[in-house]
Amino acid sequence: MKTDKARQRLFNYLDGILALSHExxxxxxxxxxxxxxxxxxxxxxxxxxxKLLETEELEQRVEKLEEQIKEGLVIPGETHRKxxx
Length: 85
What we know:
Number of helices: 2
Helix content: over 70%
Shape: elongated
Order of helices and strands: HH
Distance between the termini: 48 Å
Low-confidence stretches: none
Structural class: mainly alpha
Strand content: under 5%
Oligomer: single chain
Number of domains: 1
Number of strands: 0
Protein backbone atom coordinates (compact mmCIF):
# COMPACT_ATOMS: atom_id res chain seq x y z
CA MET A 1 0.00 0.00 0.00
CA LYS A 2 1.07 3.56 -0.67
CA THR A 3 0.26 4.55 2.92
CA ASP A 4 2.50 1.82 4.33
CA LYS A 5 5.45 3.00 2.22
CA ALA A 6 4.89 6.61 3.23
CA ARG A 7 4.63 5.64 6.90
CA GLN A 8 7.82 3.60 6.67
CA ARG A 9 9.62 6.56 5.09
CA LEU A 10 8.42 8.76 7.96
CA PHE A 11 9.68 6.22 10.50
CA ASN A 12 13.05 6.22 8.74
CA TYR A 13 13.23 10.03 8.75
CA LEU A 14 12.27 10.15 12.41
CA ASP A 15 14.93 7.56 13.26
CA GLY A 16 17.51 9.81 11.63
CA ILE A 17 16.19 12.92 13.36
CA LEU A 18 16.22 11.19 16.73
CA ALA A 19 19.77 9.91 16.26
CA LEU A 20 21.10 13.31 15.14
CA SER A 21 19.27 15.34 17.78
CA HIS A 22 20.36 12.94 20.53
CA GLU A 23 23.97 13.19 19.37
CA UNK A 24 23.85 17.01 19.23
CA UNK A 25 22.09 17.19 22.59
CA UNK A 26 24.71 14.96 24.26
CA UNK A 27 27.71 16.72 22.66
CA UNK A 28 26.63 20.09 23.96
CA UNK A 29 26.67 19.73 27.75
CA UNK A 30 26.13 23.42 28.41
CA UNK A 31 22.62 24.58 29.13
CA UNK A 32 22.24 26.98 26.26
CA UNK A 33 19.67 27.84 23.62
CA UNK A 34 21.10 25.44 21.02
CA UNK A 35 20.96 22.46 23.37
CA UNK A 36 17.39 23.31 24.30
CA UNK A 37 16.42 23.42 20.62
CA UNK A 38 17.91 19.95 20.04
CA UNK A 39 16.05 18.70 23.11
CA UNK A 40 12.77 20.13 21.84
CA UNK A 41 13.35 18.52 18.46
CA UNK A 42 13.84 15.14 20.17
CA UNK A 43 10.61 15.57 22.13
CA UNK A 44 8.68 16.49 18.98
CA UNK A 45 10.15 13.56 17.03
CA UNK A 46 9.31 11.12 19.83
CA UNK A 47 5.74 12.45 19.96
CA UNK A 48 5.35 12.13 16.20
CA UNK A 49 6.78 8.61 16.30
CA UNK A 50 4.25 7.69 18.96
CA LYS A 51 1.35 9.10 16.95
CA LEU A 52 2.45 7.12 13.89
CA LEU A 53 2.61 3.94 15.94
CA GLU A 54 -0.83 4.64 17.38
CA THR A 55 -2.29 5.24 13.92
CA GLU A 56 -0.68 2.06 12.62
CA GLU A 57 -2.09 0.05 15.52
CA LEU A 58 -5.59 1.46 14.98
CA GLU A 59 -5.46 0.65 11.27
CA GLN A 60 -4.43 -2.93 12.09
CA ARG A 61 -7.35 -3.25 14.50
CA VAL A 62 -9.76 -1.96 11.86
CA GLU A 63 -8.40 -4.45 9.31
CA LYS A 64 -8.79 -7.28 11.82
CA LEU A 65 -12.38 -6.28 12.57
CA GLU A 66 -13.18 -6.04 8.87
CA GLU A 67 -11.83 -9.57 8.37
CA GLN A 68 -13.91 -10.84 11.29
CA ILE A 69 -17.02 -9.20 9.82
CA LYS A 70 -16.35 -10.86 6.45
CA GLU A 71 -15.94 -14.22 8.17
CA GLY A 72 -19.15 -13.71 10.14
CA LEU A 73 -17.38 -13.71 13.49
CA VAL A 74 -18.60 -10.22 14.33
CA ILE A 75 -21.94 -8.68 13.44
CA PRO A 76 -21.78 -4.92 12.75
CA GLY A 77 -23.89 -2.88 15.13
CA GLU A 78 -24.06 -5.66 17.69
CA THR A 79 -23.08 -4.51 21.16
CA HIS A 80 -21.82 -6.64 23.96
CA ARG A 81 -22.66 -4.51 26.96
CA LYS A 82 -23.55 -5.89 30.33
CA UNK A 83 -26.78 -4.61 31.74
CA UNK A 84 -26.39 -2.88 35.07
CA UNK A 85 -29.15 -2.69 37.60
